[in-house]
Amino acid sequence: MNEETVRNFSLLLSATPRGARLARRLTAEQLRTWELPVDPDRAEHIVAELAANAATHGRVPGRDFRLTLYVVGGTLRIEVTDSRGDRPVLHSRHGSPADESGRGLVIVEALSDRWGVTSGRPPRKTVWAEINVVPQPAPASAPTGPAGPVGPGPRILPSR
Question: Of the CATH numbers 3.90.76.10, 3.10.28.10, 3.30.565.10, 3.30.2010.10, which one belongs to the domain with range 7-136?
């Protein structure tokens, strides 16, 4: 039987700008704790966009949003669930440079390997993104020189 480790983190946060900032910070800390071979900035930016959308467009007074992170196999899945069932709209990539909003899901699309929207129990929806976790190559054995292992720092070559 193939036993696979599943890592999971889930938390309700207030649907406010403060809750969105906290989602990003908690994601950074959780990824550090898990020591995943994934670019933390990439995951943090995805969380920042999804959480900002939940706090701005998915906000229902008195309702929170849920941040869920989990790793199964070689995939980090990021989910943000809010209390508005309307589906988000992916705006054109060719918006005006003066536009102050409308690029969040374009950024999510660019940074993730896959993303989508899943309807939940009414009126909820979950916007999710996945990042492939790339295993780090095993460290190469330390090169050796005539006097033994060569470590970091200046390397003195014998004179000719």
Answer: 3.30.565.10
Task: List C-alpha distances in Å: 65 to 43, 52, 114.
Answer: 18, 10, 21
**CA 58 – CA 64 distance, rounded (Å):** 10
Model confidence over 91-149: pLDDT tens digits?
545 555 555 555 788 999 999 999 999 988 888 899 999 999 976 555 555 455 555 44
Cα(152)–Cα(26) distance, integer angstroms = 34
Give the other-Cβ count within 10 Å of 147's Cβ.
8
- What pLDDT, in 10s, does the model give residues 25-55? 999 999 999 998 899 899 999 999 999 999 9
How buried is 52 (Cβ within 10 angstroms: 0-12 exposed, 13-18 middle, 19+ buried)? Answer: buried
Strands 148-149 and 125-132: what pairing? unpaired
Whole-angstrom distance, CA of residue 88 vs CA of residue 112: 16
Residue type, 78: I
For the chain, the domains span 7-136
